[in-house]
Amino acid sequence: MGVLTLEEPFGVLPDSAPESSEGPSSMNLLWCVIRPERLDAVKEALTQAHVVGGMTITEVRGFGRQKGHVEHYRGEEYVIRFLPKIRVDIAVRREDLERTLTAVAQAARTGQVGDGKIFVVAMRHALRIRTGERGMTAL
To answer: How far apart are CA 70 and CA 78, in angstroms?
Structure first.
């Protein structure tokens, strides 16, 4: 069993840590950056698809092709460069990846610039803190 020490970077498992029995790329982490008003629709779509046991939500700010927008307040013009977004982090099994991507993309899509992006990252390992379960059983 690999143990993290204070000298190691946070979140990085030592090379001697065992991989899950399913293999290192049998899990993926999705970073979904979406419009705040689409969060309920995304959550509902994931619930109906039965592919996700949980998710982490973070309020973030950023810009892409939108490049922000201009607002007026008391006669003054303000350029808002970083727009509010929601980041949804979801760990999924490889076999559920396409269904999860489709569910999020369809639920988050408005057809307007600024709908967001989904980034898929291969997960090397997962650990459920409470039980010590590792790999896909930790999801």
So the answer is: 6
Residue 21 in tokens:
């029995």
pTM of the model: 0.74
| Cβ count near 106 (within 10 Å) | 12
How many other CB atoms sit within 10 Å of the CB of residue 68?
A: 13
2 neighbors 72 (Cβ within 8 angstroms): no
Within 8 A by CB and 6+ apart from 88, the residues are: 30, 31, 32, 34, 39, 42, 55, 56, 57, 104
Tell me the pLDDT tens digit for each residue of 54-90. Answer: 899 999 998 777 666 677 778 888 777 788 999 999 9
CB atoms near residue 134 (< 10 Å): 18
- Tokens linked to 124: 């090397």
Could you give the 3-state DSSP secondary structure of residue 48?
Answer: helix
The answer to whether 51 and 99 are in contact (CB under 8 A) is: yes
Higher pLDDT, 110 or 68: 110
Question: Is the Cα dihedral 64, 108, 24, 19 positive or negative?
Answer: positive
Burial of 55 (0-12, 13-18, 19+ CB in 10 A): middle
Tokens representing 51 are 């592919």
